[in-house]
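FAQ: What does the model actually see?

It sees only this:
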Amino acid sequence: MDMRHQAFADLAPPLHRPRLLDEARIVPLCNRLTALFFDRPAETGRRARLTALLDGRPAPAPCIGTALALQSGGLRHLMLLMLPVAEVVGARIDLVLDGRPEAAAEPDWLQPPLRPLPVLLAGLGPAGRTQILKLMLTTGASLFAGAGGPDLAALGRQLLDLCQVPQVPAQGWTTFGDGAAIVSHRWEGAAPPQGAAMAVLPDRIGRQETETLAEPEAGRLHLHLNGRPPESGEVVIFAPGPVRLMPPPAGDLPQPLALWLQGRSDAARGWALGHVRTAAARSPAAAALLRELRTPDLPIRIDMLSLSAAPGGLLYAFRLEDAERLVRTIRFQAGSRFVEIAPSVGPDGIALDAGFAPLAEATEGEPCQIHLILGSGRQRHLPEMRPQPYRGGIPDGFAEAWAVARSDGPAAALARVRAVLPRQPAAVRIERFGPAGQARLALIAAVGANPDLIPARAALIGAEPAAHRAEVILTVPEGPRAEQARNLAAVAAEVHGTGHHILSHAADATPAEVLRAALALCPGAALLLGPDVLPAMPGWLGSWLDHLLRAEVPVTAGVLLDHDGAVAEAMTTIETGAIRRPFDGLPPDRLPSTGGTAIVSGSCAGLTPAAIARILAMPDGPADLPLVLAALTAGAPVTVRAAAPFIRFGCAPPPDPFTESVLIHGLGLLAPTGTIPETA
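And it is asked to produce this:
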């Protein structure tokens, strides 16, 4: 009796394997994606359906089965599973074609059939390689997104490299509208079929809506993108085989569209302009570009309000009328170097801009070319200008641009330039009148509109017990007023016995340089007074002289009253970017007994001999007198001395908001050491 059959009669029949099965080869693609495959000769008829069983159960979704053409003429049946390779290797694997097992792998095999990625591609024909690339870059990238974008992107690049997909470098590109681009590549042959391309980026693979146009006579393929080309990725198209269209090199700026269109075929020009017309329906920038390309006479007007050569570049101000917003930038060019400024066109189509253009090559008197760069890349050339040297004033257009923009750009730019103006000693003429005594204090004041204050000041000095220890230094621009001041000073010196210096200077000399010239004449300490400022009460001279010769702080601010006796200037502060004068107009007895001021105007301030020496030793510095004084204390508040106040005769003009904004920015530039940064 044959007992063997009886012994196994009660066992379940095994999976029917009518023949020896092939080995199911396993390829780990990335952390959560695994490939299974086996090869078979090609069969005629319909395509067989491939399924994968893990431990007898269908593989979980998502998964993809396909067949790839081999070079030999057979097929490589491939199943992609979104499972880690460890989970796949730990299961019994059966690959089944139309219900018939064809390949298998067992978990207890001593050596699991793991293969590297190149084995998956080995033996594939060109069609098979194209198939797997299309599968992985299109359907697979979407279906297996859960496997991780960076992992899939790295796998895509590996496949492209292993399949030796040719790389085609970019050769120029242009942009238009709100980010649309056309990238040109070297190309031989017919145009590829239209269709979506795939962008392989560092962190993902994504669909890239494109349209291509071949320009055979130029050997170019133009690729239209609805966004900027990827900076560190590539675009893959199938033409019909895969091609890697590389992005423009880093630093390769796009050409303006008008320049890109030059030399193109009629077909290429029409194709590109068609995309601009399409974009114009949704993009104001593209619509403006289209109008510009169609308009021979552009409705643009520009007026250069000022152009000055300053340390490191140009101070500029212009008014641009550009209702169609056709101007992209304004280019200032000196020699081969240039800088471009984007105009800030308002809702009314007008831009009133002022600022600083960093262009070290621009020097005074040398030609400066100015070009309007339009959105298409076309240029309109303005008449050549020769910038004048900047001497420290407020250039035309700056205050207006600041007021219109309601931003501190013009004020900040001007403050930075004024902070680093090189010292240019003012050309002065000095004449002395009266005795050359043993003065220890100089009263420095500008000659104002009221010449009668010259003898009045001399009389107040002469009435003081310490009159022999003081002298007067008057500054005045050269001209008729200077001659009048000399005559009055000569009489005052003779009548009151007070020495006078008349320091006349060029009209464009900065206040700081005039101050330095006056301080160079000082015998000891100095009192800086406004042109219409006189002492308010007797005893002032001895009080201030004793204070300045003993003071430890370099600068002391005085209290200035108006002609009615109310406070006109004392203890200013800077809050939220604005100058505050909380005590102006109040009675002087409302002032606190001690306090400081953020700004010393020069209308009422005392300088010690040490402070004078420091000012004269500054290699460069600001053109504004308050900043020169603030530099002595590193921008810290200055002590206010309420004793022995001064009085202003006449009405002071209201503060100019732009000048104050420039001053505030200048104070912010003061370095901790009390100097001004060396670069603008």
